[in-house]
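Quick one:
INPUT:
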């Protein structure tokens, strides 16, 4: 261990051209630097470069030596190499974190993989510089971190000076994110902090002496009188009571949502101090008000996503069941009638196969708008599958009224729909079941309507029919498909296809997303959208997930053995899988069984899935991430509105949903949204992958916005393992500079 000599003012600068970037700052903070590198010449070079700054410097050549210095001295900044003779620089960083040492860290290393950089940043590194570094970049980085250390020192000193003083107490109260108030014994404000200005638009002076009811929303005044001026104390006092307050600036706005602010109130009575509780005199109320407007909006948005289809905005199956249950109860009370219609778009799969799923999504949205024009306000249209809809017609006068609606729907399909200069004519198969003629329970009504639809599908399509008892022998497609899927798992009918993820800068394949396909013996190759929704309604999704995990690990190992190394395979995972106690063990055992490196697997899960059980998701995914398995958020931007989970989960990758990419154009409003996601990912040091890239314009916009990795039909469709091997071997022959060349592989 040795000390670097400090700067001598008579010595000529080692790098005269860099003197402008060196900051000489005195002050109360004594700055010392610890240089950790196993190469003596590298350490000395760093000391020579940093000497003009005039700070005390110390050298260490190993983990043990560095830890010994950290035990002896308080260093302001440490410059750490990752490769050390007795361990890794990561060990030093973990030691600093575990012992709550305030030393700031900059990593300077030749190890520049994403995993190393990510682990370093998670272990507390402030920055990561690659060897060989440019001297100016190093000095700028060191100066930046030393400035932050000085700023932190100043804030700490100010805090120490304020501690225990009245100024500190007033500062804390006035800068609280919550509104803090005191009422006198008549319910009038005797104190209120400055938060009232931004929350309600009132001045503190204007409210002093005013009754609390002046800020309460009119519909909540009665509720507020029992809690706002609370007299009780202890466990009986009011805690977490939700109210709405009046925003002064919005008093003239007509809509409740605009002028009412949702808050959570906690209040207690305040009494004079006496030896006897009976002698204590009530002098007022102390309360704290927390703004929960954003939380209420998030809850409303979560509720919407839970009960609505993302693509069309229609109610989903769960909401349809709720409305049908209520409609049945009303029909029983009023001795009325209702009808359930099961709609299926005939041969819709041909549109997806010939025009692509983006076209299919667009056409489904347009079909939805057409269907709505034939309905009353009280009717409920729900999307319950890829091309299947349920329609509830409450309060019909006679059963024949349902046939009139079915005829209108079929007629609307005959009107040509123009898509990319092609005329499309769509037909519907519709089954009808009515209450009370056909069934009296919601499940039977839906099942009978489905059976009637099956009858139409098997007898020419493009028509409608009422349920008849003789249809009972028919097997609904969903049930038939579920039984076939069970057989598919046993009969080896499933196959994994892979869609490459392309690095736009290096023009090479860096990852693969595993996508399941079903080689159906009668229907041919089925895409996930045709059977995954059904599997998610049963435990089949876990069986499918286990099969995908096993096959992806096996394929990953085969790629490695063929010399196609360094590719990360991403597999889609459902929340039902995470709920299984054995999931973590299944993943680790599958990886070990096939001899695959842990960092070659990535678990993809959607935002909406995570929100089903946030704590469970955090526990399982964190445990896997600690083992080195990457975690990706799929369909990012379409689910939960709060982004707090990004700080809770060990995420390494965000996958921008294809719905945002499909709207990308030079003049489209979707572009700023994608740019915002990319900027946020960059700030959080996360990878970003754009899904569903289908055009050159989309690719160029993404590249200009800073997105490095994309996947989509513009480069490559999902491919079988045989096709993929050929693709990757040709791509490996050289870095591809032209996208046409890459697409042709």
């Amino acid at each position: 261990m040795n000390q670097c000599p400090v700067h001598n003012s008579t010595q000529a600068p080692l790098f005269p051209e860099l003197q402008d970037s060196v900051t000489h700052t005195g002050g109360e903070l004594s700055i010392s630097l610890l240089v950790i590198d196993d190469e003596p010449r590298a350490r000395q070079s760093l000391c020579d470069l940093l000497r003009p700054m005039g700070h005390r410097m110390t050298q260490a050549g190993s983990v043990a030596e560095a830890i010994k210095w950290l035990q002896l001295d308080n260093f302001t900044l440490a410059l750490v190499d990752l490769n050390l003779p007795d361990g890794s620089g990561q060990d030093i960083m973990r030691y600093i974190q575990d012992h709550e040492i305030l030393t700031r860290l900059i990593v300077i290393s030749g190890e520049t993989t994403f995993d190393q950089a990510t682990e370093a940043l998670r272990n507390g590194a402030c920055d990561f510089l690659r060897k060989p570094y440019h001297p100016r970049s190093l000095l700028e980085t060191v100066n930046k971190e030393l400035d932050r250390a000085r700023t932190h020192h100043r804030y700490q000193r100010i805090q120490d000076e304020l501690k225990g003083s009245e100024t500190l107490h007033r500062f804390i109260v006035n800068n609280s994110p919550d509104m803090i108030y005191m009422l006198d014994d008549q319910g009038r404000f005797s104190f209120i902090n400055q938060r009232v200005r931004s929350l309600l638009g009132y001045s503190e002076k204007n409210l002093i002496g005013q009754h609390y009811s002046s800020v309460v929303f009119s519909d909540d005044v009665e509720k507020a009188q029992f809690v706002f001026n609370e007299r009780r104390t202890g466990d009986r006092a009011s805690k977490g009571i939700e109210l709405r307050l009046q925003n002064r600036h919005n008093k003239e706005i007509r809509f409740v949502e605009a002028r009412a602010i949702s808050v959570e109130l906690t209040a207690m009575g305040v009494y004079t101090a006496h030896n006897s509780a009976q002698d204590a005199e009530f002098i007022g109320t102390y309360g704290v008000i927390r703004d929960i407007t954003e939380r209420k909006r998030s809850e409303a948005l979560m509720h919407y996503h839970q009960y609505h289809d993302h693509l069309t905005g229609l109610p989903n199956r769960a909401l349809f069941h709720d409305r049908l249950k209520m409609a049945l109860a009303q029909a029983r009370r009023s001795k009325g009638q209702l009808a359930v219609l099961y709609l299926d778009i005939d041969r819709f799969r041909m549109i997806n196969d010939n025009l692509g799923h983006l076209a299919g999504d667009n056409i489904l949205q347009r079909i939805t708008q057409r269907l709505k024009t034939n309905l009353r306000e009280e009717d409920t249209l729900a999307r319950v599958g890829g091309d299947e809809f349920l329609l509830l017609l409450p309060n019909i006068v006679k059963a024949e009224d349902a046939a009139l609606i079915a005829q209108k729907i079929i007629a609307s399909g005959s009107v040509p729909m123009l898509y990319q200069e092609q005329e499309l004519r769509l037909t519907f198969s519709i089954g009808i079941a009515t209450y009370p003629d056909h069934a009296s329970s919601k499940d039977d009504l839906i099942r009978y309507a489905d059976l009637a639809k099956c009858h139409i599908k098997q007898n020419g399509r493009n028509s409608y029919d009422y349920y008849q008892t003789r249809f009972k022998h028919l097997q609904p497609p969903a049930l038939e498909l579920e039984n076939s899927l069970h057989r598919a798992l046993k009969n080896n009918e499933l196959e994994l296809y892979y869609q490459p993820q392309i690095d736009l800068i290096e023009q090479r394949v860096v990852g693969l997303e595993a996508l399941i396909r079903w080689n159906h013996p009668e229907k041919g190759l089925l895409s996930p959208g045709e059977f995954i929704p059904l599997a998610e309604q049963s435990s089949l999704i876990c069986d499918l997930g286990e099969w995908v995990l096993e096959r992806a690990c096996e394929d990953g190992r085969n790629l490695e053995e063929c010399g196609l190394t360094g590719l990360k395979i991403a597999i889609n995972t459902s929340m039902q899988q995470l709920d299984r106690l054995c999931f973590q063990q299944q993943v680790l055992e599958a990886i070990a069984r096939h001899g695959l490196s842990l960092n070659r697997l990535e678990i993809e899960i959607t935002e909406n899935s995570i929100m089903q059980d946030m704590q469970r998701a955090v526990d399982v995914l964190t445990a896997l991430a600690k083992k080195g398995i990457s975690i990706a958020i799929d369909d990012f931007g379409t689910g939960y509105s709060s982004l707090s989970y990004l700080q809770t989960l060990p995420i390494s990758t965000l996958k921008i949903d294809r719905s945002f990419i499909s709207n990308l154009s030079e003049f489209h409003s979707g572009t700023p949204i994608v740019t915002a996601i990319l900027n946020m990912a960059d700030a959080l040091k996360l990878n970003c992958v754009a899904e569903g890239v289908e055009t050159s314009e989309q690719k160029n916009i993404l590249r200009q916005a800073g997105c490095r990795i994309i996947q989509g039909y513009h480069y490559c469709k999902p491919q079988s393992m045989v096709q993929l091997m050929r693709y990757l071997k040709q791509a490996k022959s050289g870095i591809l500079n032209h996208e046409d060349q890459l697409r042709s592989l």
